[in-house]
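Fig. S4 source data, part A: sequence.
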Amino acid sequence: MLRALRWLALLWALAPQARAAEVPRGREVIEVDHVPGKLGAVIFRHADHGRRKRPDGTLIRCRDCHHTLAGDEPTSAAQLQAMRCTLCHVGLGEAPRVIGGKAARPVAALKPDGAIDHRSILFHDYCRGCHQAQRGGERLLAACKVCHEKGIGSGVLHGRYDAERQPGTALSWLRCAAGQRWTGKRCDGAAAAVSWAEAPGHCPEGYRLPAPAELHGLLGCAEGGRGCRPCAQSPACAPLLGADAGSYWTSAEQGEKAQVVRLADGAASLQPKGGAAAVRCLQEVRP
């Protein structure tokens, strides 16, 4: 009898359907914050999900979310490192990354006016369908608030978190410089410093580099870039970009150089295209 019990214990330990997947130390609770917005990060607790079961009665495995795993769980440190979503899925509004001939879509797309297209959020597709499944009469998700603890309102769904239209114009400016992330209140992170050739690739699909006159228009400059105000003191620039005083590439080029405009005072200068400057992106939005 004792021998039989030992065998049963061994089989239970080896059976994948009887064990919850182990979670790497320090990743027991993670914040899913790849898509900015007023709701903040979604707090994901591995333990809560590890206790849930799939339709066949087995416990949820790593592969159910980390869909590129060859097996149910990672078997090496390299596989653990490869389980980050952003290794394949690019940031908000960027063009899909092609991996192995297949397009890995971005974490979310932007609407033409610069607002987040909430229907395109990657995590909604991967998480919501599973949460909404009926299993033995158990409703795993009764409302959006289960994950979004602050709740969902019309102002959240339709608010602009990433771009703002310049009053009196058809121009919609991304709030943050390339490399930064809009949190709903401010731009976090450091602005990217890239060459002129690289700069257009740092703008989301549908966005472009500004012309010098468009940056000067934000600063209230007269014709020729005279009499500019600092961005922080300009009625047009401050509400859109805050107190930004950085230097940004424009679309204007001349031979091996391209024009850079400084938001601190509107100063324009020709810089070598191989040099480094920050990137601001805009698009024209027509009614």
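Fig. S4 source data, part B ends here. The chain has two domains: 11-158, 163-284.
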